[in-house]
Automatic annotation (TrEMBL):
The keyword Glycoprotein does not apply. Pfam families: GSHPx. Belongs to the glutathione peroxidase family. The active site is at residue 35. It comes from Actinomadura litoris. The keyword Oxidoreductase applies. One of its GO terms (molecular function) is peroxidase activity. This is Glutathione peroxidase. One of its GO terms (biological process) is cellular response to oxidative stress.
Length: 162
């Protein structure tokens, strides 16, 4: 089963329908509005703008598990992202990325190691997983990895559909 078969809700109801991304490259990021890393939204949006026409999207997954840094309602989260960072990429419902209530999407992601060999629990907001067009995890990046860093951009370019 690929991540594209996992069911997850959209931020403001309905389904995020991950199947629509089959055959594309997706950067899945657990996001938060009140974190020291929140300015990464700007870089994520620039990636969205830069690569969207080439079969790529950022998928923001709000999570409130790290010091309560995503406390808002779906409407507040959507307004913050749009008004503060001009976010156009899709956002899912708020989920748990760790623990007993870990969402199935993250159950399928956390087994992948990052460049330092870390697997398992998400360490903090803005941890990133790059999913290739086949639905397999192509790369994992630490929360501190800037979205537009050379390593992230190179990985995205390697996974873009032909």
């Amino acid at each position: 089963m690929s991540v594209y078969d996992v069911e997850i809700g959209g931020l403001q109801g309905g389904s995020a329908d991950l199947a629509q991304y089959r055959g594309t490259s997706v950067l899945v990021v657990n996001v938060a509005s009140k974190c020291g890393l929140t300015p990464q939204y700007a870089g994520l949006e620039r990636l969205q703008e830069r690569f969207a026409e080439r079969g790529f999207t950022v998928l923001g997954v709000p999570c409130n598990q790290f010091m309560g840094q995503e406390p808002g309602t779906p409407e507040e989260i959507a307004e913050f992202c749009s008004a503060t960072y001009g976010v156009t990429f899709p956002l899912t419902e708020k989920v748990d990325v760790n623990g007993e209530q870990r969402h199935p999407l993250y159950q399928g992601l956390v087994g992948t190691a990052d460049a330092e060999g870390h697997t398992g629990d998400i360490r903090w907001n803005f941890e990133k997983f790059l999913i290739g067009p086949d639905g397999a995890v192509a790369a994992r990046f630490a929360p501190q990895a800037e979205p537009e860093s050379a390593e992230v951009v190179a990985a995205i370019e390697r996974t873009l559909p032909a």
